[in-house]
Amino acid sequence: MTIARSWKRTMLVGAMLALTPTLGFAQAARVMAPAKPNVTILATGGTIAGAQPKAGEAGYKSGSFSVESLIQAVPGMEKVAVVKGEQIANIGSQDMNDAVWIKLARRVNELQKDPGVDGIVITHGTDTQEETGYFLDLVVKGDKPVVLVGSMRPATAISADGPMNLYNGTAVSIDPAARGRGVLIVMNDDIHYAREATKTNTTSLQTFTSPNRGRAGIVLFGKASFYSPPVPKHTTGSAFAGSVPDAMPKVFIVYAHANVGPEFVEAAVAAGAKGIVLAGVGDGNGTDPLIQALAAAAKKGIVVVRSSRVGTGTVARNVELDDDKLGFVAAMELNPPKARVLLQQALTKTKDVAEIQKYFDTY
After folding, report:
1. Rounded Cα gap, residues 338 and 144, in angstroms
2. Among 146, 251, 280, 304, which has the minimal tally of Cβ within 10 Å of its Cβ?
């Protein structure tokens, strides 16, 4: 605190004492203390709210505890912010679906407009956390921090990681440096941009990494340090911001492997697919029968996006395959699950392959 600010505060406290002689200096200082920020926690279930049927067992049931229980389990949370909880859903994130996404996104956009809310935290299972985070990154309109947190151990486990993740996530959500950075994921002391993060381990606490562009920062006991800002467009800069559809276009992911045939593509077409994402081998490739089936689907007006099952790197246009000839879109840095999320949103705007490629180049 500067000398000028310190002098000003002392004068204000002195003025209060003069007006209220019976008020002690400590009490006056408390009255003058700035109000704590307000954070809304939206709970969706997941491991962070999970319970083991028997102590010490590896298995557990997701979504066993309410948001109020999660908040009460975090020591010192009341010192960070005034926290309010809302239960959006209470499911394992393997069961995450379009209906919950739509409900969640609309509530987040309402909170973005609420002047009484400073930060938004979402508790979520780790299995599909990166997909939900990226979806919100595209459709949220506002620069208030939105932070997803989860855990790798259930709430009843020895050394559960959920409370610290929730504490850190809440602290990040009220950090001025977090504003305007898009949707974030906070796990195991790391801060990730939702677009960049992916789950890489089935059980390790250090499961989330950002393999292509790196972490957004770190947070230690509620103190955040941010690195480079995000480059791709997001939230207020997104063409989809503030526009949450009533229903999502049907998009399937087809997984490439040795000796794969056209059957998965044919099944997706028969099921009414509007888009198909290829989780290709290597640089987004597949067997000749698979590629020919995808090309036939593209000719029918189904948008086909080439991504890779590898998990890192870029699938660039007209590398490995002739996308111009086949009528495909290249996913660039997006892995198959995130390519599916962006394709869903792109299809709410257009079916033109060239225009959709621009979205993949931008987001």
Report:
1. 23
2. 251
- Is residue 299, in this structure, part of any structural domain at all? yes
Residue count (the chain): 363
- HSE-CB for 156 with a 13 A CA cutoff: 16
pLDDT digits (tens, 9 = 90+) for 6-49: 343 443 334 443 444 444 544 544 455 578 999 999 999 999 98
Q: Spell out the alpha helix ranges (H) of the chain.
A: 3-19, 25-32, 67-72, 77-80, 98-113, 129-139, 162-173, 263-270, 288-299, 323-326, 336-347, 353-362
Q: Tokens 């993949």, residue?
A: 360
In this structure, are 202 and 139 located in the same domain?
yes
Number of domains in the chain: 3
Distance, CA of 205 to CA of 58 (rounded, Å): 14
Select which of 47, 126, 128, 156 is catalytic.
47
Nearest to 312 by CA among 218, 229, 214: 214
Q: How far apart are CA 1 and CA 6, in angstroms?
A: 6
What is the model's pLDDT at position 64? Answer: 79
Rg of the chain on CA atoms, in Å: 23
Instruction: Let me know whether 217 and 107 are in one domain.
Output: yes
pLDDT in tens, 66-83: 999 999 999 999 999 999
CA–chain centroid gap for 190, Å, is: 14
Q: For this structure, is 202 an active site residue?
A: no
Domain limits for position 293:
251-362
Question: Which tokens sit at 170?
Answer: 């809440």
**Euclidean distance between the first and the last CA atom of the chain, given in angstroms as a whole number:** 41
pTM over 0.85: yes
| Token pair belonging to 301 | 């007006």
The answer to whether 184 touches 197, Cβ cutoff 8 Å, is no
- Find out whether 125 and 227 touch, Cβ atoms under 8 Å: no
3-state secondary structure of 305: strand
Angle at 219 between CA 214 and CA 221, to 5 degrees: 160
244 found inside a domain: no
Six token digits for residue 124: 């979520």
Residues 179 and 226 in one domain: yes
Residue 199 sits at φ, ψ, to 5 deg, of -80, 130
